[in-house]
Design goal:
By secondary structure, the protein is mainly β. It contains no helices and six strands.
Length: 124
């Protein structure tokens, strides 16, 4: 697996995430899954999100629980609980990250088959 990994990120907290965004589900890719020792994965989002009236194009994910690893997503049926960070302002050490959200990640299908299409009325 040397290609970018496409993930679905479902933001569950804050509970009002959808007030600023059309959906709690975001899609993005990472190459951090190639590093077995990476504790956090940087996700480049296909479409950004707003949080506290600020726009973001990426996010940092880490396991929600101590002792777990994000690679668990490869063996998971429903997803893996994660902490979600957004970028903070520049400081002397460069940009920082602030973990302010939680959610679940799961493997995502290729963009052309997201399954967002509704069945025809005669198929219901």
């Amino acid at each position: 697996m040397s290609e970018p990994l496409r993930l679905r990120i479902h933001v569950s907290e804050p509970f009002d995430f959808e007030r600023e965004n059309p959906s709690p589900d975001l899609f993005g890719t990472t190459v951090d899954h190639l590093d077995d020792k990476a504790d956090e994965w940087l996700i480049e989002l296909e479409t950004g999100y707003s949080f506290h009236e600020e726009a973001y194009a990426d996010m940092l994910l880490s396991p929600r629980y101590v002792g777990e690893h994000l690679a668990k997503v490869f063996d998971s049926f429903l997803g893996v609980p994660v902490r979600i960070a957004h970028r903070t302002e520049e400081n002397e050490e460069g940009p920082g990250w602030h973990f302010a959200m939680t959610g679940m990640i799961s493997l995502a299908p290729p963009p052309e088959s997201d399954g967002d299409q509704k069945p025809a009325e005669d198929q219901i």
